[in-house]
Write a structure and sequence with these properties.
Number of strands: 2
Radius of gyration: 21 Å
Order of helices and strands: HHHHEHHHEHHHH
CATH topology: Four Helix Bundle (Hemerythrin (Met), subunit A)
Strand order of the largest sheet: 1-2
Helix content: over 70%
Distance between the termini: 75 Å
Structural class: mainly alpha
CATH architecture: Up-down Bundle
Strand content: under 5%
CATH class: Mainly Alpha
Largest sheet: 2 strands, antiparallel
């Protein structure tokens, strides 16, 4: 390796820096001198840093394609940084999200789920490197849930618990807090399993942004961005979890329809 692309490499390293910062700030949650306000702040900040890492992860491939500098080195570096930002950081954040549980058995189960999440994320990234070419332009669909989307699912839960979104929508109820508390470990187990599955997931950014489209398509994208900016935490929750769960549900419904007995045709109803 004699030459590397500077800007795409810096963007990829920015992904790793955001992941490491998310771990560092999540480590401040639950300290002896911490307050409820500071815990909420660090929780939300860790979630936003994972989201920013996703932006760096998207930009490095886009810039590399513009500069025509995609390489094996860039693909390997991207996977190493993804293992930090979308593997270790969400798993550590999961442990912090589960501090409300006081039962030792639940704490041990959370630790096992966090370890399983890291393992599935690393296996997902290794399989991606083996099955795909270094050129990001060739990645139209994914086998299994992409690791950034899985990390976004956990980050959206951290953002919702650590921000004032529930207060703004008057949804700050014990029922909502209990639901988030229960769904966090279960959801992490679900997305970890989806990462190593063989389910097909589309590349949404390529489908939405590439090519020439009708003017109304641009208007819909602008309206979606405005809605995302307005609702923020709730919109991210719907986007990430909707993307993660929609395709397994469609696959399950399709298999269920195939197993149903087909009604006899009209030709079979009449004697020949």
């Amino acid at each position: 390796m004699k030459k590397i692309a500077i800007i795409p490499t810096l963007l990829t390293l920015g992904n790793a820096v955001c992941g490491f910062a998310a771990i560092a700030y999540a480590g401040k949650i639950g300290l002896a001198d911490a307050t409820a306000a500071s815990d909420s702040y660090y929780l939300a900040l860790s979630g936003w840093l994972i989201v920013v890492a996703m932006l760096f992860d998207s930009l490095d491939g886009y810039v590399a394609r513009l500069a025509r500098s995609t390489s094996k080195f860039g693909a390997e570096l991207d996977s190493l940084c993804d293992a930090i930002s979308f593997g270790a950081a969400p798993a550590f954040l999961l442990l912090r999200l589960g501090q409300d549980w006081e039962m030792p058995v639940v704490q041990q189960a959370l630790a096992v789920i966090a370890v399983l999440y890291v393992i599935c994320a690393v296996l997902r990234l290794a399989r991606f490197n083996v099955d795909n070419s270094p050129d990001p332009a060739s990645h139209k669909r994914f086998k299994g849930l992409p690791s950034p989307a899985a990390a976004g699912c956990l980050a959206s839960l951290a953002l919702l618990r650590g921000s004032q979104a529930s207060h703004a929508l008057m949804l700050d109820s014990p029922l909502l807090r209990d639901w988030l508390k229960l769904w966090t470990p279960l959801g992490a187990l679900v997305v970890a399993s989806l990462m190593v599955s063989r389910l097909s997931y589309p590349h949404l950014t390529k489908q939405l942004l590439r090519g020439r489209r009708h003017f109304s398509h641009l208007i819909r994208i602008i309206m979606a961005v405005c809605l995302l900016a307005l609702l923020r935490e709730w919109a991210l929750l719907l986007v990430f979890w909707g993307y993660a769960l929609t395709f397994p549900m469609r696959y399950a419904l399709a298999r269920g329809r195939r197993r149903l007995p087909q009604p006899a045709g009209l030709d079979d109803a009449w004697p020949r």
